[in-house]
Amino acid sequence: MHAMQYELTLPADYDMDVIRARVARVKPLLEDWEGLGCKAYLVRERGVHGSPVNQYAPFYLWNTAEGMNRFLWGGPFQRLVDDFGRPAVRQWTGLAVAEGGGARPAFAVRRRQPVPQGVELTPLMEDAAAATERLAAQEGAVLAAAAVDAHRWELVHFSLWEQDTPAADGDVFEVLHLSAPGRDRLPRGRQW
Question: What are phi and psi of 100, to 5 degrees?
Answer without folding.
Answer: -100, -175
